[in-house]
Specification:
The protein is of the alpha+beta class. It has four helices and six strands, in the order ααααββββββ. The strands form two sheets. A three-stranded antiparallel sheet has the order 1-2-5, with no helix packed on it. A three-stranded antiparallel sheet has the order 4-3-6, with no helix packed on it. β1 and β2 form a beta hairpin. α2 packs across α3 and α3 runs antiparallel to α4. The longest helix has 34 residues. The protein starts with a helix and ends with a strand.
Length: 228
């Protein structure tokens, strides 16, 4: 796929040369199309299209950076003492063009991801059983918070019933680790919440606003919880 990026950049450089080194001809649709080729839109059983769209967003931004970088180097290679200011001006034009491309890419994906996110709100993420620590465990998608370059957050509220007295700190605080697991049950990431109370068997434990990065959520199949 790197060859495709170079081909797009080469076309843009030829256009620049034909136009006397003006602003790049690369546009957001080029970057988005290439990102979609490299990262097909897929349907996650819980998160829907959100993870793959978020990764496409990030990839499209990377492609734009790569293409403009190649163009910038090509222009910079022509610099000498006689044309320094002219070359600097052309490079500044490219930098402005890049920021505009990124803005349009992000706007494109923000709308698409936000629309796709509507379908996952209220869905439950499966929770791996652990009768020694909890029962009646739930992890529900509560919201989606947009972010630039595919860095949006999936917000999850979780709860479970303690199966025993949970470990505490100084008899005042309880730390709960929430684990993200792949389909095989392997932990791929973990987070921690400190709750300002202790829990005995039968108490309900609530973990609000757990944050999952949209762009890395495609490997998540289920969650689990442990007390530290």
């Amino acid at each position: 796929m790197k060859t495709n990026i170079i081909a797009i950049a080469a076309t843009a450089i030829l256009t620049l040369s034909a136009c006397g080194g003006g602003t790049s001809s690369v546009n957001p649709s080029d970057c988005i199309s290439e990102a979609e080729k490299q990262i097909p839109t897929e349907q996650h059983p819980v998160f829907g299209e959100v993870p793959s769209l978020a990764r496409q967003n990030s990839k499209a931004i990377d492609i734009a950076d790569s293409i403009i970088s190649i163009e910038r180097d090509a222009i910079g290679a022509k610099a000498d003492n006689d044309n320094y200011e002219e070359i600097s001006g052309k490079i500044n034009e490219l930098d402005t063009k890049l920021e505009n491309i990124k803005k349009e890419i992000n706007q494109n994906y923000e709308g698409r991801i936000s629309e796709a996110a509507k379908g996952m709100i209220g869905k439950e993420i499966p929770v791996e059983a652990n009768s020694g620590v909890y029962s009646a465990a739930k992890a529900t998608i509560a919201a989606y918070k947009p972010g630039e370059s595919g860095q949006g957050d999936i917000i999850v509220n979780a709860s479970f019933t303690a199966a025993r007295t949970l470990k505490s700190l100084a008899g005042k605080y309880t730390q709960i680790t929430y684990n993200r697991l792949d389909a095989s049950g392997k932990t791929i990431a973990s987070g921690l919440q400190t709750l300002q109370q202790t829990f005995k068997a039968g108490d309900e434990v609530k973990l609000d606003s757990i944050i999952l990065r949209a762009g890395t959520a495609d490997d998540i199949a289920k969650m689990s919880f442990t007390d530290n």
